[in-house]
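Supplementary Data S3. Sequence and structure tokens for construct A.
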Amino acid sequence: MTVSALPFDQPRDAALPSPLYPKFSLADGERGGHFDPRGDPAAPICHILSEDDLKKLPGYEQLVKEAKEEHGSGGYHLKTYDKDLPGKAATICVNGPAQVTYDSGTANKKLYCNEVVADAKGELTGTNGTVALMVLQGVQTTAQLTISSAASIGLSNMYQTQVAFPGVADLFDFFTTSVSITNTQTQSFTTTYTDQTTLSLTMSSVEGKTCHAKEVVEQCTIPGTGRVELIVKGDALFEYESPTGEKDDKKAGKHYKWSVAIDKLPPQARTGYIEFRVGLEVTTRGKFKGVCCLRCTYKLLQHKHIGAEPVLHIGSTYLLDTSIKRKPDDITATAEDTAVHQTSFQL
């Protein structure tokens, strides 16, 4: 039996580059976030930080200290947004794609992968007979993310982010995918990635025998962890009870409202993390097995394995491996020819 394959163009989910998130902006009088057009419009990459969350930052006391040094120790109201100061706001944003780390043992495929033999539709019989089958080659992944630890800031906010999955040898290359997540403990989210091509598989029959194409599908479940980094940017706003000036700029005059740049703080003093567990389901197609026999009618009565030897399934019948030298007690052969001819190949 001979086999040939031709690829066909088919749209695929291209791996997304690391995101270059747009700069956050607010229109006068608007309290909201900048929406990422690549994802769910209900899930911005940034939100206005609440006053309570601002106070939770490790660097909050440093902001208060700077405000007192520059503008005095008068009474004030802390704010993170003011319509009178467009462009001055404290925001919490997704800081780049979330990086996934697989659990130990990923290098051993026996621990998380198994192969399933399925029928590739089509059958041919006779001399010089051929049949063309349309098959898929490539990888399809579905990842379920479950929040194991919510960030203490931006709680319950929904964010649009990307998740970066490292490649796994013999399975798939590095890829990134988009997902909308909510900063809430135990919440689960699903994201998918597909990279497949349609092939035309042509089989030529062995004279006098019936041939089937068997597809070997590899199914893997890979566990791992990851985290979404949230970073606070912009300005903390101090609205004083009476006009006050600025220590380092006497010409600035006295005002009720002053801002202190949050970006001056080191990243670790204004960062929070959404931790998650990930279960990555991977289905890989592209391996096929050709099976030819005179009369493929061996029926399994009790077991799918005879000792250490596998029995291949075709529809409601089973084919014995040629290495089996005798007819087992629990197999009924309805054909005179008990020998099976198998040809394995990989596209």
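Construct B, processed identically:
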Amino acid sequence: MAEWLSSAEASRRLGVKPASLYAYASRGQLRRRTGPDGRRSEYHPDDVATLAVRGRRSRPMQPTDVVVPTAITAIIPVGPTYRGVPAVDLAGDETFEAVADLLWESPHEPDAWRAAAEVPDPVPTTSRAHGGLDAGQRLLAVTVGLRAADPLGRDLRPTVVVATARRLLGALAASLGGGSAPGTPLAEVVARSLGTEVGDAAVRAVDAALVLLADHELAASTLAVRVAASARCDPYAAELAGLAVLTGPRHGAASRGLEIALTEVAAGAPATGALAAAAAGSSVGGFGHPLYPNGDPRAIRLLEVLEAGDLGPRLGPLR
């Protein structure tokens, strides 16, 4: 068996920068694994050869993938790191609000979050007001309404943008129909919207899930937001760009089929059959991510948080 290639060697054979290898791997075009030292990535030689031949048949390969230098998030073998801190270390110990402030490089001020939530909302955000819309449509509608009523919507000073983001997150969570009082932690608001019994364990699990999903490098929705922001769009417009992409069936909406499958498994259906039906001829969302060939560390951490609370006994068929 041919030896896997180092990042430097794979880059040399393809004629691209090492940073471009990540984009090929994320698209499933290039198999990647963690090397023996646990830090460096290695790439499958057959995939490198295939990509190299494809490039020679058309034109000298050019790095057309989007590569954006960032200090926000990096993906390493233990999963995403936020500002250098592993997300799996934050999940279960820090609130989503604290992690959002970390990503924004803003001091964590719980009072500021409560104040943002208590600003009178000019747009009805209850599930009754948006009863005919699905969750994605409600988020889009609320964002448009908030922008129309915000006199500071075009103010791009960092402190104002952060304040806007806090208020927007609170309104988006409330639009899901949790029916919580202003100032309620976002994880509790989201937990209530799920229609399950809301105890400390459920809130902690939702908080952990929100933390683990807070950022994942250049996901399609993140890229859309960054493109909008680079054009000096206001925070609401940038958020709309990201939400629009997130509603796509190959991005955020990919979880719907999987949710149905997991519900069937929890009710006693065979896992293989339920997942096959969810796939419907394509891959199942949440499985086989090319960046995590040995399993997603975020899923492992979330299961740990669930098992640490009183939700553990319910995980049997989902383990």
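Residues 56-64 have pLDDT under 50 and may be disordered. Residues 158-174 form the longest helix (17 residues).
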